[in-house]
C-alpha cells in the first residue's frame, strides 16, 4: 500500500483528505484520516464518504489481488496468492463492517438534518415584525425606516401638543414639525389599558403596510404606560368628509371618481395583497384623507383585524365594541351576526360611492326624510323600471358630470350595499369594472403605484 504523501493521496487511484484529527488505523488495516473543519459541514460529509469508500475498496483488494499494469513484466509472473496470515490481517468481518456503515449512514443523515433545520430557521426577507425595544424598525420590503421617538421628541415636534387637527373615538391628532422641517401629524392614544392595546394593534398593522393610498407611518413612541403616539405624514387637504360635506367649494366630478378608484385600490391591497388579509372595519369619509394633489389616503386602523380574525370574529360583547364601525357605514349583516369579513369593508365602500355621487352624508340626524343615506338611495337603486340617474347626482355639480360614469358607479354601489354579503363584489372585481367602464381611470399614467 502506498504511503500518504503531502497532498493527502494514497497510491494513484484513491484520494482522501489530509488527516487533521484522529489519525488511526481503520478496520481494513489502512491509515485513513477523519478530517474535521470547524466551519464547513461539507468537509465532514466528504471525509466520511471517502473513508467508507476506501475501506470497502481495501477490503475487496485484500481478498483477491490480481496483476496490475505496473506489476506485469516480461516474462509474466504468476498471480500472487496471499498466505493465511495475510488473509487474516486484511479480512474484514461483515459483523464489524455492516454496523460501521449503518452508523456512518445514520450520522450522515443526522448531520444533514441539522443543516436543513438551521437553514430553515434563517429569517426570510419578507418577514416584518414589531420589536418595541429597537430604536429603529426596518421595513425590508422597500427600505423604509420607522423611527422610534421618545416622549420628549413628541412634545417638541408638536409644540407641547398645542394644535389639534383631528380627533376620533380613541385618539387625538396634533400638527407636528418633524426634523428637516417636514410637517407631520401625531396621533395620541390617551387613557386606559384597553386603548393602549388598540394603539399596539394599530402599530402592528401599520408596520406591515406600504401603499400609496394608505397613510404613511413615519415613527412611533411608546415610552409611557397606557400612552402611545403614532407619527404620520401630514395631508394638507383634510378628509373627504370635510371636502365633500363641510366645504364651501364643490368637489369636481373627476376628483370624485379618482378618489373612489384609489380607495378601491387601498381596499384591494388590504384584502388581497397583504401577507395577512386585513379588514379595516371603519371605512368612512372622515377616514379618507386627501393630499396636496387630492389623492386619497386611507387612515385609522384602530378597529382593523388581521389574519384569521379578519374572517370570523368572536361573539363577545367587548370584541364587538372594538369593531362596531360608524353610523351609516356599518354593514347591517355584521350588526345582526357579529361576523366580520372583507364584505363589511365592501359595504362601507358602497356607502362612500353614494356620498360621492349624491353629495349627501351617510348619516345625518337633521335629515327629515331619513337618517341613513342607504335608506334613501337604496329603494331608488332597486327600481325595476330603472333609476333616474340625473335625479340622484349631486345638484351642486350643476350637470358637470358624465352620465355613463354615474350609471356605472351607482350600479357598483347597488351591489356593494346588497343584503347578502356573498353576492357583494370583491375589491378586485370593483376595480376591474371601473377600469372597463371609466376610460380616464384605465390609463396606466393615471394609476397610483403600489410600493
Automatic annotation (TrEMBL):
Keywords: ATP-binding, Cell membrane, Glycoprotein, Lectin, Membrane, Nucleotide-binding, Receptor, Signal, Transmembrane, Transmembrane helix
UniProt-recorded Gene Ontology molecular function terms: ATP binding; carbohydrate binding; protein kinase activity
One GO CC annotation: plasma membrane
Spans through the membrane: 41-65, 96-115
InterPro entries: Kinase-like_dom_sf (IPR011009), Prot_kinase_dom (IPR000719), Ser/Thr_kinase_AS (IPR008271)
Keyword presence, Nuclease: no
Main location: membrane
Pfam family, one: Pkinase
Compartment list: Cell membrane
Biological process annotations from GO: defense response to oomycetes
Recorded family membership: In the C-terminal section; belongs to the protein kinase superfamily. Ser/Thr protein kinase family.
PANTHER family given in the database record: OS01G0253100 PROTEIN, OS02G0648100 PROTEIN
Protein name: Protein kinase domain-containing protein
Protein species of origin: Acer yangbiense
